[in-house]
Amino acid sequence: MKKQLLSMAMLMAMSLSASAQQLLPYQNTNLSVEARANDLLSRLTLEEKMKLMMDTSPAIARLGIPQFQWWNEALHGVGRNGFVTVFPITMHMAASWDDTLLYKVFTAVSDEARAKAQEAKKSGNIKRYQSLSFWTPNINIFRDPRWGRGQETYGEDPYLTTRMGLAVVNGLQGQTFDGKPMSAPGVLAPASSQAPQYVKLLACAKHFAVHSGPEWNRHSFNVEDLPERDLWETYLPAFKSLVQDANVAEVMCAYQRIDGAPCCSNARYERQILRDEWGFKGLITSDCGAINDFYVPGRHGTAKTPAEATAQAIGAGTDVECGSVYRSLPEAVKTGMISEEKVNESLKRLLIARFRLGDFDQDKNVPWTQIPSSVIASKAHKDLAEKMAEEGIVLLQNRKNLLPLKSAGMKIVVMGPNANDSIMQWGNYSGYPTSTTTILQGIRKYVKDAKYIPACTLTRNEVSESRFNLLTSADGSKGMKATYWNNSEMKGEPVATAMMTSPINQSNGGNTVFAPGVNLTDFSARYEGVFTPEEDETLNVRMGCDDGYRLIIDGDTVANVWKGRARVQMLNKPISVKAGKPMKIQVDYFQKTDMAVMQFDIVKNYTPTESQLLAEVGDADVVVFVGGISPSLEGEEMKVSEPGFKGGDRTDIELPQAQRKVMEMLHRAGKRVVFVNCSGSAIAMVPETENAESILQAWYPGERGGEAVAKVLFGEVNPSGKLPVTFYKSVNDLPDFLDYTMKNRTYRYFRGETLFPFGHGLSYTSYEYGKPTLKKVKSEERRVKNEERKMKNSSAYSLSFSLSNKGNREGTEVAQVYIRRMDDAEGPIKTLKAFKRITLKAGEKQQVTVSLPRQSFEGWDSQTNTMRVVPGKYQIFVGGSSADAAKNVIEVKVK
């Protein structure tokens, strides 16, 4: 009886407690998110406010606030969070010129992200990269091919970047293709008809503003004297559109300064432009470590202390800090550097964002939480990755119609360092695919006995064959076991373990941790495995480490760089091995400050001669050379010890000489060569246009890239990709990398002769454009998001032209429309304003219509220093590339 009474009392107490909790306004889902945020804000202490403004936001138990991670990645698939679907890099997806397909891709990405986040939530411990705020898309304009992070962007054009960026944000945030909120399709409906409309995820437009390298000096670099025209016509349009047309939830401020003020404390950009002029209601997050740059010696130098830096950032409107400087927020408030009211302004935006996600509400009321884990790396998503890979491959050259290849009766040899490299295909900021099809594997689905000859590495005339696959852990699992400690002495309990199943290549570039739960700096690791050789040979243990390492083989320390601080130390240690004799391999590593790098592999090195290579090629009908570069050479703030690369950027844009020599040799020997180039951006390949009959730009094509490349090579897919960047002939044709003005940059201003122009892309058929015609259409109305007004699109036009498929097979053409103001001598040569993908059967002819609203004619007016439609004469160009469009031109007078 006593037990029953006790149980009843407990139930009543729980019920009363729940009822009391329901009375708290911030827990009432019938209230607006703003009202809920205001109530919760009033209950927080200053210390709690500080914690909620950090990217790793801990739970606040007394108020029922769950933990939250603001920093998550989804550049081209959910990143750094275990097994997922790995789509092609964004530059590859931009080359599809298919924003409809891109919207489907990021709808799939957001499905996987929600399912992953729900799994983490159920585990009771949400780690970094496991929450609902995703710092993508990167909509910076790729002004210079030397920038290592260009692979993360959607190219060099403001309009194309805008179209693709809108598709990404709408897909991530669970909005319709035109930016309207939507309910979760195919999952449970909200429990109550009064339930709020929840967003699926928070997307983030980055990096604001005027950012596109270099990587090596970004913590101190100042963009100054930038013409207002370049700012408003080139660097800002995509940001403005994502704010006003897609209601993007977050904007990330960049590392560098503009006119002396760091982007993350730049009041002109954050307050005046972003909030006052554009009406942005979302939150601003710092890039990781950017607030440190305010006061760390040798960087921006705008603050003397962390508290002062915190006050500067929050004062300008930076709401979330990725880093640890905001820990000084209480000090900044107490010393009067910033008011608590200003802090509340920022924190309120964060709370509203979390309420919009349903982060404080029961799962049954949030439909997006019902997305099942079965969507993760599902067949449907993998097929979508392959479709996008197919559409983004660009046929640059096809002399004598060598492509498509024949799978029967043709002897094919595959060569090159990227042919059998699965990791290269993943690009940067990727997750882990459950499987990857390499380009070699894809080709062998058509030609089973296709011979593979590596021929060279990316940058050297030698061949390195990895033997990492012969390593096993103590329990027999493939690979090496990694154990991590959050100190540099390997003391105490480990914080994480992992299995390394491929050659180790870890770094904290881009503020990336080695494993969930491991410190960004000041940590140590041990990698252990048993190496069992298959034959007697001399191998090399290849390592690259910063700060310190020990290599221990069978208990003997054979290399030791453990004392002091060492910048990246390279080791290439020869070892003699005996077939079947196991060797115990142990690598100890520690890291103290700044950059962390750990690279390890066991390889067989040798340098083949030309006669050896030609003998191996033999009487092959065609050599498919798969080369280019790799994300291991270009990327964010990297340490690369190869000539031609600096900090993740490139100092030249030519194909590495080692690969060039192989193709020259093949050409001299009379071999027909197909060059498949893998890179994140443009490569200057002038000799390759002579040494290879056909050139295919395959980018970093994702986990299903091997199938996609092979389908194009053998004609199962007719290529339709178009270049989102200009391919130049030489770095000598470019302005200084530090010059942010657009003069002589991109197709819009470049006056020289290109190798392959922006928008270029061949097909296995040919297309013919008819003369375009233009007519005025009825004025339209368009509501601008975040503004209580409507803009009339007076003087809108309808552009029409015929498009014919003159070949004998079906194909898809991307018709491109460019505009130029004729009396604007300082303006762009031409600017993309519309495009449309059209599929035509062999011999088919279609009449194509493209809408050109009044905004299509908007540009910089130097008389008023504003963006507006300047009355006057305009040229309209139509064609299959920026160069071809010059052949079909009409003029129109716009009032």
From TrEMBL:
GO terms for biological process: arabinan catabolic process; xylan catabolic process. GO terms for molecular function: alpha-L-arabinofuranosidase activity; xylan 1,4-beta-xylosidase activity. Residues 475-616 form the PA14 domain. SMART domains: Fn3_like, PA14. Residues 1-20 form the signal peptide. The keyword Heme does not apply. Pfam families: Fn3-like (PF14310), Glyco_hydro_3 (PF00933), Glyco_hydro_3_C (PF01915), PA14 (PF07691). It comes from the Bacteria. Keywords: Hydrolase, Signal. Belongs to the glycosyl hydrolase 3 family. This is Glycosyl hydrolase family 3. Transmembrane segments: none annotated.
